[in-house]
Amino acid sequence: TLIDALREEFPSTHIFSIPTGKSAKVLAQMYQDNGLLDDVLPRGPYDESLFTDEKGHQGKIIVETGTLLWLSSLYGVDLLSNDFDTGFDTDLHNVAVEIMQQHDPNYSR
Question: Is the pTM of the predicted complex or chain greater than 0.85?
Fold first, then answer.
């Protein structure tokens, strides 16, 4: 992987990945399965859609989930006890926890 190559080239640097892109895939699947508790569109305005355009720019629900992934990965925030209000009814904290649990620990911080 790219991370392996970078680790080899820069052995004194701690290189890891944060699976923020996975939030788009997971939330899109939840949308298709009617698993979201929020009324969001597949594509449309930022605040109420998964994506804002055909290119795949993320809407707020995906951005908020990615933000939680960053909090967990970079700062070690326990998302299950964190009370940050994402503004969504869907439990984005739990979505982010599940994504992190599936992330290869060899590429985590």
Answer: yes
